[in-house]
Amino acid sequence: MNRPVVPRVAPAGVEAPGAARTLLEAHDLRAGYGHVPVLHGVSLTLNEGEALGIVGHNGMGKTTLL
Questions:
Q1: Average pLDDT of the residues in 11-37
Q2: Per-residue pLDDT for 17 more than 70?
Q3: How far, in whole angstroms, is CA 17 from its chain's centroid?
């Protein structure tokens, strides 16, 4: 039986023992080509041990995000 994962919280600036490290964090990313917006305020966080997949139709901004 799987137990739920409970995040460990520590005061700001202090890493909790056993807590996952943040490897990548981005806030409010915006990009475009000329006057054509492609990314509209994308935010994401990737922690150690996690995987992130970017999927979408052609022309949706996947490569621009990367």
A1: 83
A2: no
A3: 22
pTM of this prediction exceeds 0.70: no
DSSP symbols for 17-59: TTPPPEEEEEEEEEEEETTEEEEEEEEEEEETT-------STT
Q: Which has the closest alpha carbon to 43: 24, 16, 59, 63?
A: 24
44 close to 25: Cβ distance less than 8 angstroms: yes
Copy the structure tokens of residue 51.
Answer: 């995987």
Q: How far apart are CA 15 and CA 12, in angstroms?
A: 8
Residue 37 has pLDDT above 80, yes or no: yes
